[in-house]
C-alpha cells in the first residue's frame, strides 16, 4: 500500500489549494478514504472522508462549507479542495486508508496559510 500526497504549499489567507493523494498497492475503488491534518503541537484530526462510491462524509466542523473531498476511481486518487483558507488551517495534511483494520498513511504534505 502506498499513498502519496501532493499539492501543499504556502498560500495567503482567503486563498485556495487542491491536495491530491495518489494510491497504489490495493483496489482503490473498494475502500473508504480520508484526509487528516496535524498542526504543530496538536493531535492529528479528521478533516473529511469519502466512501468508495464517492459520497463525502465526516467533514470536521472547522472545515465544513470550505473544504470538499472527492475522488476519481479511474485515477486511484482522492482530492481535497480547500477554499477560504485561514492561518488555523496550517498543518501537515495526510491521506489514510484502512484495510483489514490496519491504517495506512501517506507521508503528508505541508499547507501553510500566511500573509
What is the percentage of strand-forming residues?
A: over 45%
What's the alpha carbon Rg, rounded to whole Å?
A: 13 Å
Q: What about the largest sheet?
A: 7 strands, mixed
The assigned structural class equals: mainly beta
Number of helices: 0
| Helical percentage | under 10%
The pLDDT mean sits at 97
Whole-Å distance between the termini?
37 Å
Indicate the overall shape.
globular
Q: How do the SSEs run, as a string of H and E? A: EEEEEEEEEEE
- Can you tell me the residue ranges where pLDDT is under 50 for at least 5 consecutive residues? none
Number of separate strands: 11
Write structural notes for this entry.
It contains no helices and eleven strands. A hairpin with a 5-residue loop joins strand 5 and strand 6. Strands 2, 4, 5, 6, 9, 10 and 11 form a seven-stranded mixed beta sheet that branches. By secondary structure, the protein is mainly beta.
Summarize the structure.
Strands 2, 4, 5, 6, 9, 10 and 11 form a 7-stranded mixed β-sheet that branches. A 4-stranded antiparallel β-sheet has the order 1-3-8-7, with no helix packed on it. It has strands at residues 2-6, 9-11, 17-24, 33-38, 45-50, 56-57, 67-72, 77-82, 91-99, 102-105, 109-113. The chain is mostly beta strands and 115 residues long.
Amino acid at each position: 500500500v502506498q499513498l502519496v500526497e501532493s499539492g501543499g504549499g504556502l498560500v495567503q489567507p482567503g486563498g485556495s489549494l487542491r491536495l491530491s493523494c495518489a494510491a497504489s498497492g490495493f483496489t482503490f475503488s473498494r475502500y473508504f478514504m480520508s484526509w487528516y491534518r496535524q498542526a504543530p503541537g496538536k493531535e492529528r484530526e479528521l478533516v473529511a472522508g469519502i466512501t468508495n462510491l464517492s459520497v463525502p462524509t465526516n467533514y470536521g466542523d472547522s472545515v465544513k462549507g470550505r473544504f470538499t473531498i472527492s475522488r476519481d476511481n479511474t485515477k486511484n486518487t482522492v482530492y481535497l479542495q480547500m477554499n477560504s483558507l485561514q492561518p488555523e488551517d496550517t498543518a501537515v495534511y495526510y491521506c489514510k486508508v484502512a484495510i483489514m483494520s490496519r491504517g495506512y498513511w501517506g507521508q503528508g504534505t505541508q499547507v501553510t496559510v500566511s500573509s
